[in-house]
Design brief:
By secondary structure, the chain is an alpha+beta fold. Helices cover 52% and strands 20% of the residues. The chain has a five-stranded antiparallel beta sheet. A five-stranded mixed beta sheet has the order 7-9-10-12-11. A two-stranded antiparallel ribbon has the order 6-8. Strand 1 and strand 2 form a beta hairpin.
Length: 399
């Protein structure tokens, strides 16, 4: 398939989305596991330090050489304060010692000094007030190393997950790719088989028109020739699409194209007693770059849709306008028919969409129209009020 094939691009996009979703899910899991692990380690280390401080403070024997990053302060009955080693700035916590010495309960507190967290445990023991201070700097350094290790492991896991997710996405979408290939082959085969009989029908219609000359059936034969030519263009367009290309684009005058479409729908409109009008500026052609056959199908689909929902005595108008900033051509198809529920506007261009009341179906024509307009870098939208008609608006870059 061609690299520019829309179906192939959508398939690749689906694979990327599946791979990204797989990787994102694993990333969330790894993040949750990492955060929980860090919290549990930090809580455990803090609890172990607090337990060690309590044991040291409660020991019947005076500890002369406490563990590294911990300090013991003793205030005896005579008011003499001693320390096991040179304490960090801000210690001892004299206020806590005074409160416990004056009959207060045992205190456990946390303090942060110069970016370092400390646990402070103060109690009374046999007439001596004991305060044990422990630093959490070592535990915090271990937590940082653990976080770096978990981050590195998570990054490697994500890289592996991305590769695995892409492989799984390819495998999951392989049946879809096969189905697209089969569909493409079917369309190509059917289009190829239809080309010859359509060409013969078009030739015979031209010969019949030539043989009858300017007789009363000349108008009908002209429309028959035009219809067979348009049908052949549709088949050629389908055949080109199976090769991943939409065919060459040309400069198309939407005003001329709209006039031709309205002329082709004239008989049906007269039979239904519906008036068709074209509003355009003859001095300013509405030129766009695109495929004339495809754009003709879009206008035909919108006119057919309007005729299907406009009662006798109704009116359908096609209005064209140009904008210079940005350079844009706007085509509006307006009718005063039954309209549709405003809630249907967001899915009216879906294939075989159901209406809001679950009775009206929108078929395939509007969905194909949106695909054509999107392929021309344009937009199409619809607005309606039930019982007051519908308005379809196409915006295309000016040629």
């Amino acid at each position: 398939m061609n690299r520019a094939d829309p179906d192939l691009l959508l398939l690749r996009r689906a694979r990327r989305i599946l791979a990204i979703q797989h990787t994102a899910a694993l990333a969330v899991i790894l993040l949750i596991v990492g955060v929980v692990a860090l919290l549990m380690v930090g809580h455990g280390q803090r609890g172990a330090l607090a337990h060690g401080l309590r044991q040291t403070a409660a020991s019947e024997e005076d500890v002369v050489d406490p563990p590294e990053d911990s300090w013991i302060f003793r205030l005896d009955a005579a008011g003499t304060l001693t320390a096991t080693r040179h304490p960090p700035a801000g210690f001892p916590d004299q206020a806590a010692i005074d409160r416990v010495r004056n009959g207060g309960p045992t205190e456990t507190a946390s303090r942060e000094i110069d970016g370092v967290d400390y646990l402070v445990y103060t109690r009374q023991r046999k007439g001596t007030t004991v305060q044990v201070v422990g630093s959490l700097a070592g535990q915090e350094a271990e937590q940082r190393r653990l976080a770096m290790a978990l981050g590195a492991a998570g990054l490697l896991g994500l890289l592996g997950s991305a590769a695995t997710g892409l492989a799984l996405a390819r495998r999951a979408t392989a049946p879809l790719g096969d189905a697209l290939d089969r569909q493409r082959r079917f369309v190509a085969d059917a289009s190829h088989e239809l080309r010859t009989p359509l060409a013969q029908l078009h030739t015979r219609a031209q010969l019949l028109r030539r043989d009858l000359g300017d007789g009363p059936a000349r108008t009908d034969l002209d429309r028959l020739v035009a219809g067979t030519r348009e049908l052949g263009e549709v088949v050629d367009d389908l055949l080109l699409s199976t090769h991943g290309t939409a065919g060459g684009s040309t400069e198309v005058d939407l005003g001329v194209l709209a006039a031709a479409v309205l002329a082709a729908a004239g008989d049906r409109a007269r039979d239904q007693d519906v008036t068709l009008d074209l509003v355009t500026d003859p001095d300013e052609p509405s030129l766009v770059r695109g495929r004339e056959a495809a754009l003709r199908r879009v206008l035909t689909a919108l006119i057919d849709n309007a005729l299907s929902h406009t009662p006798p005595g109704g009116h359908i108008a096609v209005e064209l306008s140009r904008r210079t900033a940005p350079r844009q051509v706007t085509v509006t198809v307006r009718d005063d028919g039954s309209g549709f529920d405003p809630g249907d506007a967001r899915h009216i261009f879906d294939r075989f969409a159901r209406g809001h009341d679950d009775h009206r179906r929108f078929g395939l024509g509007l969905a194909l129209a949106r695909e054509v307009i999107t392929g021309h870098s344009g937009t199409i939208d619809a607005h309606s009020t039930p019982g007051h008609g519908a308005v379809f608006t196409i915006r295309l870059p000016a040629g």
